[in-house]
Amino acid sequence: MDFFSEIIGETVILGLDSLILGFCVKQLSKCKHILNALQTAPVLEIDSSINKELKKFPNSTIPYVVIRGLVKPLGTPITSNYNNSITGVVQRLTIKEHVIARTSAGFWSDQTRTIHEVCNSTPFVLNNGKYSIEVVDALAAELLDMDVISDKFEPMSPGVIDHVWGFFSGVRQRGLQTMEEMLRDGSYITAIGELSKSKTGALKIQPPRDGLPLYLTTATKSSLLKRLASSRDFLRILVVIFGAVAVAASCRVAYKYVKRRKRRALDDSVKQRLAAGRRERRAVAREKNLSEVQLCVVCTENPKEIILLPCGHVCVCEDCSDNITDNCPICRKRIESRAPAFIT
Ligand SMILES: [Zn+2]
Ligand SMILES: [Zn+2]
């Protein structure tokens, strides 16, 4: 059995584990990066002081900033599809299919699939009295807290055919969930992103350039920091677990390799002992007082015992033949095979 087939299990585990470990390490470093940026991000009020703060930074841009204010649409707000009295600036309509599906293990479990999602948004600002900051690209926000305006579930009443079909296909329909969420105008939210001032003097907050996320949330900076810290801790635990698996799998591969080398060394020494034994037995059985023509051309001690093929030269004893692997010592032709020669 070659070495690779001996360690195939460990290789598969190591491969999968490295993929997961790599992903966790990446997420962890991203999480730490956001956490550091958020910890140092200034919390600014939307008032006259904001212009003073902006002047302290190059290009009148603060890379990461926390601002709280009231949502106010710049044009006509979006009206809810389900309640005419509710208006907002971002709307998300989702249709989800609820099914009971048979898993690969043979159990039936509840599953939800999003079959349709529409997002609408209209330009809006965060407002405080006469001061306001425009929120750019709100849909790109990594965290966008919205109010659930409507959440309806329409169950399906399956017939006999549906039951039979469900049994064979492994998927049974349970119903459709239609949901509408909105960022309502007048709601008080925290925006975390890059704050900049255009040449016309208008302020805007948008997704930062260096991979940091834009947050539009009802949470405060401190509760967001807590959330990020707990996900960082969770990721750390995952990294430790998958790291330990990687170390264990690598150690096992190393152990198997060392064991295999030891086994080989043992096999070789057994072979060598057997060959030495054979040589001794041959020496005892050999004829003595041979003429020079009958002697091996290499050691000139033992009789010629081996025929080299394809050249056909009978020129060496069995001991010397063991040490000659490539060419015939007489004609230098390549040795392809050899056989015992019986000279009578
Ligand atoms: Zn010899
Ligand atoms: Zn030869």
UniProtKB/TrEMBL annotation:
<keyword id="KW-0808">Transferase</keyword>
<dbReference type="GO" id="GO:0005741">
    <property type="term" value="C:mitochondrial outer membrane"/>
</dbReference>
<keyword id="KW-0812">Transmembrane</keyword>
<dbReference type="InterPro" id="IPR001841">
    <property type="entry name" value="Znf_RING"/>
</dbReference>
<dbReference type="GO" id="GO:0016567">
    <property type="term" value="P:protein ubiquitination"/>
</dbReference>
<dbReference type="InterPro" id="IPR051652">
    <property type="entry name" value="MDM2_MDM4_MUL1"/>
</dbReference>
<dbReference type="GO" id="GO:0061630">
    <property type="term" value="F:ubiquitin protein ligase activity"/>
</dbReference>
<keyword id="KW-0472">Membrane</keyword>
<keyword id="KW-0863">Zinc-finger</keyword>
<feature type="transmembrane region" description="Helical">
    <location>
        <begin position="234"/>
        <end position="255"/>
    </location>
</feature>
<dbReference type="InterPro" id="IPR022170">
    <property type="entry name" value="MUL1-like"/>
</dbReference>
<feature type="domain" description="RING-type">
    <location>
        <begin position="296"/>
        <end position="332"/>
    </location>
</feature>
<keyword id="KW-0496">Mitochondrion</keyword>
<keyword id="KW-0862">Zinc</keyword>
<dbReference type="Pfam" id="PF13920">
    <property type="entry name" value="zf-C3HC4_3"/>
</dbReference>
<keyword id="KW-0833">Ubl conjugation pathway</keyword>
<dbReference type="Pfam" id="PF12483">
    <property type="entry name" value="GIDE"/>
</dbReference>
<keyword id="KW-1133">Transmembrane helix</keyword>
<keyword id="KW-1000">Mitochondrion outer membrane</keyword>
<protein>
    <recommendedName>
        <fullName>RING-type E3 ubiquitin transferase</fullName>
        <ecNumber>2.3.2.27</ecNumber>
    </recommendedName>
</protein>
<keyword id="KW-0479">Metal-binding</keyword>
<dbReference type="InterPro" id="IPR013083">
    <property type="entry name" value="Znf_RING/FYVE/PHD"/>
</dbReference>
<dbReference type="GO" id="GO:0008270">
    <property type="term" value="F:zinc ion binding"/>
</dbReference>
